[in-house]
Write a structure and sequence with these properties.
This protein is α/β, with parallel strands linked by helices and 455 residues long. Helix content is 49%, strand content 14%. It binds nicotinamide-adenine-dinucleotide (NAD) and D-Mannitol-1-phosphate (44H). Belongs to the mannitol dehydrogenase family.
């Protein structure tokens, strides 16, 4: 069987396969963090927008951070790849030729040149939440700042830089992080403040890691082997703050929502979908479920997710006109899609970065409304029970420190308080005695359930 190439991606004619149709001529869209999610989401929107408009000046230049092998694989395929869309009733394959090249992070000079090129008009990022925590040590953010400096020297052309990571207010977070890498008061810092836009964006599509079985399933449809393949659920949503100062590929014509304010969309998604996903991942793994769909089919876990969603909904500020009950029902259907093998271990990662962002805000709002956090507080205990059970140092950037606190004891209440101060130093107001007690009870209960399940 042959390998997927640019030419083959455009020519394939097979049931269930959409051939590549964008055929770009030059780069207009640069992406930092060329992982699976970008390819299944922003990459596909740009492919469709170029195919629809016929404007071939929006080709994608990817930059991969920790995976130079991805750059090599993409080069072997001329940038072409497929998105295997797993519907409950069968697979479809969308082929993409929007990507003109993929650089590895070491190619600093080429990355800065591409960011300085005035034909590059939008930059998107999927660099994971933790890459924003300390800009001074974040390679993608340093590459971005170096590229902006070169653009300032060369053309000073406007640019939109869009975070597509699951962070609330991600545009402001990114702008502030980049600002910390520039000399305060310098001409460069003023130019960035005045000319570079950092729109916030809410992204949503479940994209699990690709497996060899997925590559075989895609090959069965197209007749071609694709080592750049990514897998996705049918659902996809991208809501972008309408502040794209240097144009865009026509994303609004292919389903991207350009809105004045993304905050309500971000809150709806992070608080309803991502917290429920974390609950299914931590509880699911503790109960022996390998995948989210298997955890979602467990009646006890289903009930817990519904209870968490009920609680979150009491203090939610959704976007105007949002159908929250419909959204919740759809999220539950998406989690249950048996064709998506999203492992609980993948979704369980990085709890110390997710909880402060996604859960402490809800608890604060609950307390302000006179409501007692129950499942939101329990999530903290579940994460700790997960860490204590699997003891995987790679599952969280703070795993070593948190595991040391768990080992030190002397009791769950003390541990929970110390861990919360470590992961969310500004959340002391949330750590009221009754809330900490709920967290500690959940840790104790989940740990003893896990011990029983494995003995
Ligand atoms: N996978 C999903 O379902 C999904 C859905 C919505 C949003 N997202 C967002 O996209 C992000 C990436 O998800 P993914 O599935 O593509 O993961 P991935 O592991 O496939 O890709 C992550 C990319 O970021 C780069 N990167 C991360 N940290 C870096 C660092 N410190 N330095 C340099 N490069 C770094 C990696 O090299 C890689 O290219 C998530 O963290 C999340 O914020 C993912
Ligand atoms: O990507 P993370 O690590 O922030 O969270 C894991 C999943 O919950 C997440 O990737 C969802 O699949 C995604 O946010 C759905 O749009």
């Amino acid at each position: 069987m042959g390998r997927l190439t640019r030419e083959a991606a455009a020519e394939v004619s097979a049931p269930g396969v959409t051939p590549a149709r964008s055929h770009p001529e030059s780069v207009g869209h640069l992406h930092l963090g060329f992982g699976a999610f970008h390819r299944a989401h922003q990459g596909l929107y740009t492919e469709r927008a170029m195919a629809l408009s016929g404007d071939r000046s929006w080709g994608v230049l990817g930059v991969t951070g920790r995976r130079p092998d991805v750059a090599r694989t993409m080069a072997e395929q001329g940038g072409a790849y497929g998105v295997l869309v797993r519907h409950p009733d069968g697979d479809r394959l969308d082929l993409v030729d929007a990507v003109l090249d993929v650089l590895a992070a070491e190619q600093e000079d080429a990355i800065a040149d591409a960011l300085a090129d005035e034909r590059t008009r939008v930059v998107t990022l999927t660099i994971t939440e933790q890459a924003y925590a300390d800009p001074a040590t974040s390679i993608p953010l340093r590459r971005l700042a170096a590229g902006l400096a070169r653009r300032h020297e060369r053309s000073r052309a406007p640019l939109s830089v869009i975070s597509c990571d699951n962070l609330s207010d991600n545009g402001r977070v990114l702008r502030d992080a980049v600002g910390r890498l520039l000399e305060p008061g310098s001409a460069l810092a003023s130019w960035v403040a005045d000319t570079v836009a950092f729109p916030s964006s809410m992204v949503d599509r479940i994209v699990p890691a690709t497996t060899p079985a997925d590559v075989e399933a895609a090959a069965a449809l197209s007749g071609l082997v694709d080592h750049g393949l990514v897998v996705a659920e049918p659902f996809s949503q991208w809501v972008v703050q309408d502040d794209l100062v240097a144009g865009h590929p026509g994303w609004d014509r292919v389903g991207v929502q350009l809105v004045p304010d993304v905050a309500g969309w971000e809150q709806l998604k992070l608080r309803v979908l991502n917290t429920s996903h974390s609950l299914l991942a931590w509880q699911g793994a503790l109960a022996g479920h390998d995948t989210i769909s298997s955890a979602a089919a467990d009646p006890a876990l289903h009930q817990q997710v519904v209870a968490l969603m009920d609680e979150v909904a009491t203090v939610l500020q959704p976007p105007p006109g949002a159908d929250v009950p419909g959204y919740r029902a759809e999220v539950l259907r998406r989690f249950a899609n048996p064709m998506i093998r999203h492992t609980t271990a993948q979704v369980a990662r990085d709890g110390s970065r997710k909880l402060p962002e996604r859960v402490f805000g809800t608890m604060r709002d609950q307390l302000a409304a006179g409501l007692r956090p129950e499942w939101t507080a329990r999530l903290v205990g579940l994460w700790l029970a997960y860490l204590a059970r699997f003891r995987d140092p790679s599952s969280d950037p703070l795993a070593p420190e948190v595991l040391a606190l768990l080992d030190e004891g002397p009791d769950e209440v003390t541990v929970v308080r110390r861990v919360c101060r470590l992961i969310a130093p500004a959340a002391e107001d949330v750590l009221q005695d009754e809330v900490v007690t709920v967290m500690a009870d959940a840790l104790r209960e989940a740990s003893s359930n896990a011990r029983r399940a494995t003995s």
